[in-house]
C-alpha cells in the first residue's frame, strides 16, 4: 500500500501516517521523497501483509492526497494510478522529465584523446550539453576491446568541462568503477557530471544494481535486458530504486532475436508508451544498438533516424546514440556510429519529431498535457 501526501507536505504529515501504520501488525514502513523540478512528493510505503489494512483511516488524515494498493512488484518505479506524475529530477543543471528531449551523442567506447576532443567540440558547436562516453566496456568476446578504464577518466572529464558538457552517460560493470569515477571527478575539480549506465548484460547483476542504488550522487541510466522480458527488466530496475536512488531513466535498446534481421536487434521502441504507462520513469531509446548498421531508407534517411522518430513520437525523452569522428577507426561498434558531420542534421531531426509529437497530442486532445513547443530542444534543459 502506498500513501501519497500532498506536494511539499510538512514532515509532521508523514509522521502521522507512520504512527497510524504502526497500529497494524505485520506491517513495516518506508518513506520516500521524490523531488521534481518545482515540487517534492512524499510517499509512505506500507510493506508486508496489508490486505486487511483499510485505506479509509489513511485517506482521512490531513495532507494525504491518495492511497493506492499495489499489486505489481515494482512499486517504487511503478505508475500505480493514471494521474501519477513522471518522476523527473535535476542533475548538474540538466532537468530530466517528459517535457524535453536530451540527446546523449558520443563514443560507444573511448579510444583516443583526439577523438574525444573532436566529439566534445562538435557537441558544443551543436548546443548539446550531454554525451555518452564508454570507459568500461563489457564485450561478448574476451579478446575484444574492453575500454580504457579509469586511465581515460581524467582527460575525458577535463575535455567535458572545457566544452561545457554537463552530463556524461558512462557504463559501469563493477562497483569499484563508481569509486574510480568519484575519485577522478574530484581530482579534476568536478568539471562535469556522470550518469551511471547499467548495460544490458548487467541488467540482472543484482549486487551491482544494489551498489548503484545505494549511492545518491549519480543518476542512473538503466538499459533493458536484451534477452529477458520487459517485466523482468522493470523488476530488476526496481532493485536500484529500492536501495534508495530514485533518479533513474529507463532505456530501450532492442531485444536479441533473429526476427530482427537485418537489424542487429529487434527494435522495441513500441514499448515506449508501455514503459511510460507502467512506470513513472523518463524513457530513453538507444537506436544504435537496436539497428547496428548505417543503411539508408529509400527516402535518404538512415534507418537509425527512422527508429529514433518512432521512439520520440511515442514519447521518449532521451536518445542515446553513437557518433565517432572516424567510425572506420572505432575500436567498438564502428559500423553503427554516425559521423560528426551528421550531428547538426540529427539534432534538427530530433527537434522536428518532438515538435510533431507535441502537435499531435494537442490536436488529438489527449488527457495528458502536451509538452510545450519551447521545450523541444534536443539537448538543453
In words, what does this structure look like?
With about 375 residues, this protein is α/β, with parallel strands linked by helices. Helix content is about 30%, strand content about 20%. It is built from eleven helices and 15 strands. The protein is globular, with a radius of gyration of 21 Å. Mean pLDDT is about 90; it is low at about 370-380.
Approximately what portion of the residues adopt beta-strand conformation? 15-25%
How many distinct helices? 11
**In terms of quaternary structure, what is this?**
single chain
Major sheet: 9 strands, parallel
Task: Please supply descriptive tags for the structure shown above.
about 375 residues, alpha/beta, four-stranded antiparallel sheet, 11 helices, 15 strands, disordered C terminus
Amino acid at each position: 500500500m502506498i500513501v501519497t501526501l500532498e506536494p511539499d507536505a510538512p514532515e509532521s504529515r508523514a509522521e502521522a501516517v507512520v504512527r497510524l501504520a504502526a497500529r497494524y501488525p505485520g506491517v513495516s514502513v518506508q518513506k520516500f521523497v521524490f523531488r521534481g523540478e518545482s515540487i517534492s512528493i512524499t510517499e509512505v510505503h506500507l510493506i508486508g501483509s496489508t490486505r486487511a489494512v483499510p485505506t479509509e483511516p489513511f485517506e482521512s488524515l490531513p495532507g494525504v492526497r491518495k492511497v493506492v494498493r499495489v499489486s505489481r512488484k515494482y512499486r517504487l518505479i511503478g505508475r500505480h494510478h493514471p494521474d501519477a506524475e513522471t518522476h523527473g529530477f535535476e542533475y548538474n543543471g540538466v532537468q530530466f522529465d517528459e517535457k524535453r528531449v536530451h540527446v546523449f551523442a558520443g563514443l560507444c567506447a573511448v579510444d583516443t584523446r583526439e577523438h574525444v576532443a573532436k566529439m566534445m567540440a562538435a557537441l558544443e558547436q551543436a548546443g548539446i550539453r550531454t554525451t555518452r562516453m564508454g570507459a568500461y566496456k563489457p564485450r561478448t568476446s574476451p579478446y575484444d576491446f574492453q575500454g580504457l578504464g579509469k586511465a581515460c577518466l581524467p582527460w575525458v572529464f577535463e575535455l567535458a568541462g572545457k566544452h561545457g558538457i554537463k552530463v556524461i552517460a558512462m557504463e559501469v560493470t563493477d562497483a569499484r568503477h563508481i569509486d574510480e569515477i568519484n575519485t577522478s571527478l574530484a581530482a579534476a575539480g568536478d568539471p562535469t557530471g556522470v550518469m551511471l549506465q547499467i548495460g544490458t548484460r548487467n541488467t540482472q547483476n543484482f549486487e551491482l544494481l544494489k551498489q548503484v542504488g545505494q549511492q545518491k550522487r549519480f543518476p542512473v541510466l538503466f538499459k533493458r535486458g536484451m534477452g529477458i522480458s520487459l517485466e523482468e527488466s522493470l523488476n530488476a530496475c526496481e532493485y536500484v530504486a529500492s536501495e534508495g536512488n530514485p533518479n533513474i531513466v529507463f532505456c530501450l535498446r532492442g531485444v536479441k532475436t533473429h526476427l530482427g534481421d537485418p537489424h542487429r536487434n529487434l527494435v522495441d521502441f513500441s514499448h515506449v508508451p508501455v514503459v511510460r504507462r507502467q512506470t513513472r520513469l523518463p524513457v530513453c531509446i538507444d537506436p544504435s544498438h537496436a539497428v547496428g548498421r548505417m543503411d539508408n531508407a529509400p527516402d535518404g534517411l538512415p534507418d537509425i533516424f527512422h527508429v529514433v522518430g518512432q521512439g520520440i513520437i511515442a514519447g521518449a525523452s532521451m536518445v542515446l546514440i553513437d557518433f565517432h569522428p572516424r567510425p572506420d577507426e572505432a575500436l567498438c561498434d564502428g559500423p553503427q556510429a554516425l559521423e560528426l558531420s551528421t550531428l547538426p542534421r540529427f539534432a534538427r531531426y530530433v527537434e522536428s519529431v518532438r515538435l510533431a509529437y507535441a502537435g499531435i497530442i494537442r490536436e488529438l486532445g489527449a488527457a495528458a498535457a502536451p509538452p510545450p513547443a519551447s521545450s523541444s530542444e534536443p539537448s538543453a534543459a
